Fold these 3 entries.
Entry 1:
Amino acid sequence: MKALISITIWLSIIGLTILLFFVVLLVTIISFPFDRKRKLAHRQCYWWSRAVVALNPYWGLKVSGLENIDPDKTYVVVANHQSLADIVVLYGARMQFKWVAKESLFKVPFIGWSLSLTKHIKLKRGKTESIIKVYKEAIQWLRKDMSVLFFPEGTRSQTEQMNKFQSGAFKLAIKEKKLILPISIKGTGEAIPKGSWIFKTKVSAKLKVLPAISTESFKPADFASLRDIVWEKMSTNLE
């Protein structure tokens, strides 16, 4: 029975993701002359996220803290990272942003193509020139009033405890004087089966948007202090 349910879940996810790509492609073509930020295309991921969660009997998602998102403000968004399921879960925040995501994700059929169409930011890990390019691109988006989302741990954590944060997102927020918007994710570590394709464990994921943190009082040399403050707030929330 679990195998049959798992087959149905995977086929549903694949089907929804293929549909998402063609909807995003159509919306991109239609809105191209007047929506260069691809906001309308990005919004298509909202229904995709809801449908993927709703059609998986092993997944549940509770979203809170949306009142902390001001649609008229631009943020450097930072989220912890436990699983590929975080991509699905984070669209539950229903906010406009550009991901900073590893380049290999953009090569995955349909979902990666959708990320390219919606102009998210590609990162080649371990490549200094790519990191420089990422920050230049992130600055361009922030100056166009588009939020940018980072996973400051750099890679997925293996437990509920977060890895230490890298500094780039916090240097960027201070430089551009943008608010930091922390988003904590809990429970997605077991959302995708490891070493198997069969779903076995029921997962109740939680996404919580924490209050934004101003960077106005921070000088460029204070990035480590800002980084540690954000890490502490997010870590406390996850406990």
Entry 2:
Amino acid sequence: MWDKPRLLNWFANLLYAISVVLMLYALVFVVVHLPIFPLREVKIDGQLAHVNREQIKLIVAKHLKGNFFTLDLVKARDAFQKLPWAREVSVRRRWPDKLEVAIEEHQALARWGNIALVNTHGELFQAATDAELPVFYVPGDGVMEVTKSYGNYSKILNQANIKIAQVTLSPRRSWEIKTDKGLLIALGRVDMDARLNKFAGAYQSTLSQLNVQVAYADLRYPNGFAVRKPAGLKAISAKQIPAKELPIKAVPIKPALIKPVPVATKAKPVTMAPATSARV
């Protein structure tokens, strides 16, 4: 080896190149870590209703370590992501001394029992709020399913000015809705949207117009639905209803008795009649 000048020259050039690279790296490392590139501004973007200034200050003081070049963006993003109301966070540098943080907050849609909150994307998150929200009671991890169904049911019932307070899905996959007025609606396991549409139409055109109070509505009949008035409430009589506003035949209803009410159509008025088939 020592008697081969060309090989020695190649080896010497290699050592020289390595030393130059190491010197440049050391120089860059020292310059980058000098206190001449501090972060002077943290800009927060996003429509924030729950993330407050105190939380931002705490994260900046505790987790944003280093200068413009040495700050770990992944750790910075994770720190902001741990905020209870933060759904998505992005972090990037902006030359020469700024850090831009974009935060998307959760939009609370409902409560997941008494365990968590559900956002509009059908995701669970842990946060505190005193807002009046509907409650979902669903077995397993069907949060996405109940979120989609709640959206459909709300649209239908809004036509009759009915607001949902609770949605329950039983282990047998049977749906039940409770409204803010205490009305309990049994939907069953099939054709839920169609059944609810019929009930909302009948409710808006008859029951609400006559100011009839209903405590329970069973929609699990193919040819109509059954309603029950609150216990202790006097039954409505024909004398209380003007003739021109009498789309149904008024019949006294016992609190314990449930009778099916066929859905009203333009051709025939709605009448109180017993169901002819089993509920589903």
Entry 3:
Amino acid sequence: MKVFLPILILLTLISCKNDPKKEKTEIDAENSSEEIVDSLRVSDRNLETQQITFDLKRKELLEKEDSKAALENLLISKSFLKQGDFYTLDFKYPYLNQKIKPQFENFNEYISKYYLDAKGVEKQILEEKRLCDSLGIPKQNEKRMVDYKIYNLNNRLISVLFYKENHYTGAAHAAYTFDCLNFDLERAVFLNYEDFFNNGSEEELREILNTLLKEKMNSGEMYYDCWAISADDFFDAKNNFVINDDVVEFYFDDCIICPSYTGTYSIKIPLEMLMPVLRKYKKNPLLG
């Protein structure tokens, strides 16, 4: 199966769409997925308003409820702290209890191999480009903090959301990037997009996401300066989803659908909206 991108790749800064020469368009109510705003709009809101919306956006993410307490027998929470000359790494991550099932070693080995490479992260920090809404000034002691949320579906599947708080020199706000893992507890294997959704259904699912995003953009001030999800951006992020009860929630890095100071990090899709694109086979946890 196709594994998820490791953290040292995902911590590379997102190149945001900010070409002022591109013509901006609005999402058409009848065809929300076809007309894509493909540039980062410069907000005329003052910094105080941006700070308020950023704080609300961050608070919503950090205070989301998950299943850690309910999974206390299965879950072993670990942490890792390293301070270098140019960076501070503060990671929190999960292991699974191998006493319950030895095959959970697959999960733990993946976390160890791809999420705890301090040398790789340091190399990325020293070589990376500037964030889309940060200033191009020399790096100081930059911080990378990783924490996680975990969800459980019918004791059959766990979904892990890793959220990375990146403090870049010159940025007005911290920026967030995301990585999601879905792990089948019965078979002790990782699952990706094609294990849940029909092959070739990306465009149909993107239309569903853009419809829901358009509703958010029309709902009020919190979603100013946001834009629709492009086909390329959704393809890159199609494995970044977690499953919580009857909702599938897709996560997008800062500057993919909204700048760091406003909007949303994720879009929830109720299960009933996903029925046309769900892969119909007995091993699909969403149909169990």
